[in-house]
């Protein structure tokens, strides 16, 4: 499945609770990411609908904001570019659209720009204003 055009500047990972601070070089995978074999990511336009579908009962979420070009380069959570079994983004069709999946890598202090706490006011769409 082709990537969106134009490509996003940022991708987001939704977390149900605060990540460690400071971020370690490698964050633990969620049960879903471990089961599926990749890290589920969303563009700014997909975060609200993903949050509504999977995190509707939560009153706050944390988002990891990740520069797309850093992940596309194969940068792992420790900040190193993996040259063997390279970490990579694949855009794949899911029932609700085309989503970014990060394979063969981790998220951490070396590839996450910042962690953002978001409190729900109304719907998640009402609560979010994210950079593409």
Automatic annotation (TrEMBL):
Pfam hit, one: DUF952
Leader sequence segment: none
Cross-referenced InterPro entries: DUF952
Name of the protein: DUF952-domain-containing protein
Annotated source species: Ophiobolus disseminans
């Amino acid at each position: 499945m082709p990537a969106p055009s134009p490509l996003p500047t940022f991708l987001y990972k939704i977390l149900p609770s605060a990540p460690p601070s400071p971020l370690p070089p490698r964050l633990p995978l969620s049960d879903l990411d471990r089961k599926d074999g990749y890290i589920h990511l969303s563009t700014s336009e997909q975060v609200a609908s993903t949050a509504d579908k999977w995190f509707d009962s939560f009153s706050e979420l944390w988002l990891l904001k990740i520069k797309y070009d850093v992940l596309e380069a194969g940068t792992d959570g420790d900040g190193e570019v993996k040259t063997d079994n390279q970490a990579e983004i694949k855009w794949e069709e899911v029932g609700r659209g085309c989503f970014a999946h990060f394979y063969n890598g981790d998220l951490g202090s070396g590839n996450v720009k910042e962690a953002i706490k978001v409190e729900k006011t109304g719907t998640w769409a009402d609560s979010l204003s994210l950079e593409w």
